[in-house]
Design a protein that fits this description.
20% of the residues lie in helices and 42% in strands. The chain has 272 residues and is of the alpha+beta class.
Length: 272
């Protein structure tokens, strides 16, 4: 069905969790992803499995118990926040020409941002590539073979590439315009990547592009070029000058539902 990820929901297995959730891309099972975690939470609310009496749930993902905070409007779930692991920083790529060539853009579009091209990730790594404008982000077209050459030269495995540009935001938040390519996961381009958004927020804080006091609120606009726009909220908690909390949040809507019939006569309810 051309979805970036599909989740399967099971009864809880671990103490302190409400449901077990397994997440799959078209290529493999993955331990964590933001977009399907938020979507699954909204699907559970739509099915009446969680109600407004509940302020949070804990989902058993591959990475372990994952808290999801819930915000309600009347009887309807309005917003959900998932807590993510603190990201780790990997290599900084000094030679940007190869990265620019892999994206089909001029190297100046990267260099003029004065921000680093850097590997960052919490569960799996992404390569973050800052660009000077929304036009440059929209112009990017990933050449996977060229990306593999860049990764080989840098001594890193193939990874998703997250391109973005900072935009003027509201007074209380920063805004970025972004795209994410992950052909290695069977995802040519992803309309919403929560697992890359938490590390993006920490990257922006650590390199000084965002200057929080106690917390940073960043909004990432993704999927616009695909005609499938998303708005991902990122909250980075700071304590003693160090990142101590990373949350990614947003909304989701049910656009279709049905049932998958099994050979034994049973059926599985499905929503998307």
């Amino acid at each position: 069905m051309a979805f970036s990820e599909t989740t399967f929901v099971f009864p809880a297995e671990d103490p302190g969790t409400d449901y077990r959730v397994r997440i799959f891309t078209p290529r493999a099972e993955i331990p964590m992803a933001g977009h399907p975690t938020i979507g699954t939470t909204f699907a559970l609310a739509h099915a009446g499995r969680i109600t407004k009496a509940v302020a949070s749930i804990t989902l058993g993902l591959g990475i372990g118990p994952t808290p999801v905070g819930l915000e309600w409007r009347g009887d309807q779930l309005d917003f959900a926040w998932m807590t993510q692991p603190i990201p780790q920083f990997g290599r900084r790529l000094e030679g940007i020409q190869g990265v620019a060539s892999a994206l089909g853009i001029d190297a100046a579009a990267i260099r003029d941002t004065q921000l680093p091209v850097r590997v960052v990730g919490s569960t799996f790594p992404f390569l973050y590539v800052p660009l000077v404008s929304q036009e440059a982000v929209n112009a990017a077209e990933l050449d996977r073979r060229a990306l593999l050459r860049v990764c080989q030269a840098a001594g890193i495995d193939e990874l998703g590439v997250f391109v973005f540009t900072l935009q003027s935001g509201e007074e209380d938040r920063a805004t970025v315009f972004s795209r994410m390519f992950a052909p290695g996961f069977g995802i040519p381009e992803d309309p919403a990547t929560g697992s890359a958004s938490g590390p993006l927020g920490v990257y922006l804080v650590e390199c000084g592009a965002v200057h929080p006091d106690a917390a940073a609120h960043i909004v990432s606009r993704q999927g616009v070029k695909m005609g499938r726009p998303s708005e991902i909220h990122i909250s980075i908690g700071i304590r003693g000058g160090q990142v101590h909390n990373v949350r990614v949040g947003g909304k989701a809507v049910v656009v279709g539902e049905g049932a998958i019939a099994a050979d034994d006569g049973t059926s599985i309810r499905a929503q998307h």
